[in-house]
Amino acid sequence: MGRVKGSAITSRIRYIREHADEDVYREIRDSLTPENRAWLKKGVLPHEWAPYSLFIELNVVADFVLGEGDLALCREMGRFGARVNLPTLYRIFMRLGSVQYIMRKASRLWTVHYDSGHLEVEELTNKAVRLIIRDFEEPHRAHCLSVMGWAEGAVELTGANVRSAFEETCRLDGSDACRLYAKWT
Predict the structure, then answer these.
(1) Is the pTM higher than 0.85?
(2) ∠ CA(171), CA(60), CA(18), 5° rounding?
(3) pLDDT higher than 90, residue 102
(4) Residue 98 is part of which domain span?
(5) What percent of the chain has pLDDT over 90?
């Protein structure tokens, strides 16, 4: 089972706590498997590695409790994660960067946040990009939606506006890679 950087977990916890009360947070936490619940009870640090299963389960359960159960909330939590993590962890990138600059850095930052797969960035125009997730050990819809939301949040942090963003292909549908498209103004 793969691992994810703790900041992906802590941003979800922060999202839950900002959008619900402590009882709802406990309901979500207590709905997790014993192993993942133990991780949350001990506290996850932003710079440590945490189980990918915790990331997925936390996204799915939060979406079920706070959202519609269709995983759409995973995208919003990814967007939120970009807004809270990028300005603190990667302040220099945000100060220097255009959307293209941030997206080019995203491919290099992938291995800082995941210990599986890699991210390729295709600049389609100066206002559109395709992110390609390749060789990720355990693809999951919640993960793809989270990455899409992260990309939208990163675009917004530069001051640009997202015009469209969607998943073009997914390994879960038999494709060789997950391809995410984003266009901005």
Answers:
(1) yes
(2) 130
(3) no
(4) 73-184
(5) 78
